[in-house]
Write a structure and sequence with these properties.
The protein is α/β, with parallel strands linked by helices and 370 residues long. The protein is built from 16 helices and twelve strands. It has a nine-stranded mixed beta sheet, with helices on both faces. Strands 10-12-11 form a three-stranded antiparallel beta sheet.
């Protein structure tokens, strides 16, 4: 008997149906099953669905459903669970990103909605300096704030972050660019196993037996960026996957931070570029991360004069009205409750905080000053 989850998995396997389109189709039809059982004529009535997409859905649905059934069998045999974007355990921060995956596959028990989540990324060709900065950062964050550490299990900074998290008793999640029937690179299989055994997880939006392709790793970077409060770039050349992840985090209106290196060091050119273009805050320690995220409440910001209500924009008024009727709320809850986009909410919260009308609390929570 077909389940809604099977239809959701099948929908992700239809050629030409990406994350955004899949969610739009479900929103219009009411369920993935309704999408995949609709006639081509009915599909054409959906906004932005043309003959090409309608034909693809009609031609591929049975093959996709059969493949989805195989995936469910693989999951049952290998301890893998699927998280629909509507499930309560789906990463809430990621859910607020327009292109979040319709379905995530997870192996492990990590809380993907931990109070504090940091993504740590960097070059595959890490230097001794980069590895040391990464280890120091994770050690010091573990000592006070105990965040969930997210990275991509790649060579260099990624695996260094995972290993440092394990060493310091932190939960860590690896987002991979392939199905959970394998570990890539194979040299990191022991790290992956230890992560799962210590309460972490492997996470992917790819089914088993998927083809390995370089584009997979760009696609997985959006998950690394979207599920965290901050993306921290430890080392990066002028071009590379870490900069792609940082750029995605900027697009999601998330914090980005970077460690500086010596002038002329190739391994730090990307970090310097992020800092020079104001896409990343320069950090030197875990204390800087905590301060920028308002985790360290002992370091106070200068007091600002309150704004007058007449000076507020419509979005600022809407946020202030919402916060007046509730206790402290996270930025993700504020987005959902007000219907405002993440960029609108981020900029408006900043203006309200500067105006002395609200204050930020640890964990990216915001509270109206009574």
């Amino acid at each position: 008997m077909n389940s809604e989850l099977q239809y959701q998995i099948a929908l992700t396997l239809i050629p030409g149906v990406g994350s955004i389109t899949a969610k739009q189709l479900i929103a219009y039809c009411g369920s993935a099953e309704a999408v995949l059982t609709a006639s081509p004529k009915a599909l054409l009535r959906i906004p932005d669905v043309g003959p090409a997409l309608s034909n693809a859905l009609a031609a591929s649905r049975q093959t996709a459903l059969n493949r989805a059934d195989e995936e469910l069998e693989f999951m049952a045999k290998n301890g893998v669970q699927a998280l629909s974007f509507l499930d309560k355990n789906y990463p809430e921060r990621l859910r607020n990103c327009d292109d979040c995956p319709l379905v995530l596959y997870a192996k492990g028990t990590a809380d993907l909605n931990a109070a504090k989540v940091v993504s740590i990324v960097g070059t595959r060709s890490a230097t001794a300096y980069g590895r040391q900065q990464c280890e120091n950062l994770v050690r010091d964050l573990a000592g006070v704030y105990a965040p969930l550490v997210v990275s991509g299990l790649a060579f260099g900074i990624d695996v260094c972050a995972h290993r440092a998290a394990l060493k310091n008793g932190l939960t860590t999640v690896a987002v991979v660019g392939h199905g959970l029937d394998m570990v890539y690179p194979a040299q990191h299989i022991n790290v992956a196993q230890e992560m799962v055994q210590q309460g972490g997880a492997l996470l992917s939006d790819f089914t088993s037996r998927c083809l390995m392709d370089p584009s997979n790793f760009v696609r997985r970077n959006r998950i690394v960026a979207g599920m965290a409060d901050v993306t921290i770039v430890v080392e990066s050349a002028e071009k590379g996957g870490a900069l792609i992840t940082a750029s995605m985090a900027v697009d999601y209106a998330r914090d980005v931070m970077a460690f500086p290196g010596r002038v002329g060091d190739k391994a730090s050119e990307g970090c310097h570029k992020l800092i020079k273009t104001n896409k990343a805050a320069l950090i030197e320690s875990a204390a800087d991360v905590a301060y920028n995220l308002s985790w360290d409440v002992s370091r106070k910001k200068p007091v600002q004069l309150p704004l007058f209500a007449a000076e507020l924009s419509d979005s600022e008024k809407k946020l202030l009205e919402f916060l007046s009727a509730t206790e402290a709320q996270s930025i993700d809850v504020i987005c959902r409750s007000t219907g405002l986009s993440m960029p609108q909410v981020s900029s408006s919260l900043l203006c309200l905080e500067f105006g002395g009308l609200i204050k930020s609390l640890p964990g990216k929570m915001f509270l109206k000053i009574r």
